[in-house]
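Quick question, first post here. What does this chain look like in 3D?
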Amino acid sequence: MWDQNKEKLGVTGHRGCKAYMPENTLISFREAFKLGVDVLEFDIQFTRDDVMIVMHDDMVDRTTDGTGAVCYKTLEEIKQLDAGVKFGYPGQRVPTYVEALTMIKAESDPNMILNVEIKDQRPHVVDTAIAE
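> Answer (accepted):
Ran it through. Tokens below.
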């Protein structure tokens, strides 16, 4: 990030605070805020029923206790998965994009910069993500 009068090095919370918390979860984002990040980076995917969720991988296997492709699961199926149990924080759920944006707006610095990586390659996805 650049200021007209001086340079500033910005700190990015990649997938929240993934070194210490389950990535792309609300608890991970909150920890990143506590550490004072300037930029919050996270990823979004679409479920089978076209709901945007916060998840990096196209499969749920690595980051949850489930298996299978995000695009073949409904939001209801995604919400049954535990996104924290593999990382010592059981009970964490995969947030929707709207849930994440609502929490970020309520709990982060108003100058927080968001870097949202859209993983879905379908044409309507960017417009839908920006509309939120």
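The first strand starts at residue 12 and ends at 14.
The CA atoms of residues 90 and 96 lie 18 Å apart.
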